[in-house]
Amino acid sequence: MTPEKIERLIREQMPEARISVSGGEGKFTAEVVSKAFDGLPLLKRHKLVYAAVNDQIASGELHALTIVAKTPAEVA
Hints:
The protein has a three-stranded mixed beta sheet with strand order 1-2-3. The longest helix is centred in the middle third of the chain and has 18 residues, at 42-59. Helices cover 43% and strands 28% of the residues. The chain has helices at residues 3-13, 42-59, 72-75, and strands at 18-24, 27-33, 64-70. Strand 2 (27-33), helix 2 (42-59) and strand 3 (64-70) form a beta-alpha-beta unit.
């Protein structure tokens, strides 16, 4: 698993998002900025991102993903 593959998987689910993924050896951090997070609590934001990589987590290909999920207003 590479940061680029994780970014691609998230982008497939959230094409409008700004995504940055770092890390390696099965442990990654994804920073995702999206309007889709407007009005959502943190748990629901994380669920949206996890949905994109759920198969990789279930297979063990991705061991740990730390998510930083913000709206565009929160990073402005």
